[in-house]
Hints:
alpha/beta; 7-stranded mixed β-sheet; 43% helix; globular
Amino acid sequence: MTRAVYLDHNATTPVRPEVVEAMLPHLREGFGNPNSAHALGQGSRKAIEEARERVAALINADASEIVFTSCGSESDVMAVYGAAQAGFNESAGKRSHVVTTAIEHFAVSGTCRELAARGFEITTLGVDENALVSPESVSGAISERTSLVTVMTANNEIGTIQPVAEIAAICRARGVLFHTDAVQGVGKIPVDVRALGVDMLAFSGHKINAPKGVGGLFVRKGVRLAQLIAGKQESSRRGGTENTASIVGLGVAAELARKDLDAHAASLAALRDRLEAGALSLDGVRRTGNPALRLPGTAHLCFQGIDGHQLVVGLDLDGICVSSGPACHSGATELSHVLKAMRVPDEWGKGALRVSLGWGTTEEDVERFLASLKKVLGKLRQSATI
Length: 386
Ligand code: PLP
């Protein structure tokens, strides 16, 4: 049987063998509770603290500023809800305004909706045709009642990279906390919390070749958050016995990502460009977004008059794994919220295809994708004319 071609790394990534190897002892004999005083427990504690150092090194944070969570979504909720609620409490209710954007992941947009239902005012900023948020619009939205601004680092669908450092500088000058959902950025592009000047930054294990069900939040020293899960773990920021094995896996994945970040990004961008050039040579195909300001492994294409879901199914039958949109949206024939925000016309947006490359993607994968795309697209166009 031919190997499937996996080009859906923005949805999730394979776990690297080095990560699995590092995790196994903690699922077998090293099962101690990291909060126990005995040697077995302290072995787990040591492994967690080593992982914290490794993750911190990837984003230039201090290890004490890393909070481990169960996933990227939890990290986002911890930041957005936690900061909004803490700001509200500390200002005796005067600060009850949050600024966000129209292209955020549901973990952020859903939390903002929940805050709105609780009486917070939410400003949702639009984006341009490349899914870029303008720093000026952020500045214009901040008022004396604003406690938090949240803008994602890189979009999961289009791959657009936002001017995070500029936005963070505006927030700092205005005395407002800034959170960025960097789940798609960390491990793929250089992310340096000091250079960016962010207060909080969310990341997730399964986007960087660690397992699903582990993530983290960078919380700058001194930032206060309302606690979502009561308990003393994670420096009293998050209760719950730590998931030692997965945290260890995340640490190893972070170190591997840091070691070859630039070379890996350059080789992915070259493969992505080859893939795009091949796809764009076909009729009725457009690239979405700004070719310069985006993730190296993400290509987003729109096929005029084609149903993106049918295209994904056709490619899948041919052994190619891709998406028509974000993982939580795939299968829907409606335009995603991101394409709507970018004002992509229906006749193009309904034929959206997200192809995301990552660790393990080869030239042969790209060639197989292109051959299959040509075949499936030909069939779909032919059946549309019958
Ligand atoms: N934020 C972004 C931009 C994402 O792409 C994702 C996952 O797709 C998340 C947050 C949520 O991460 P997790 O799946 O770890 O909850």
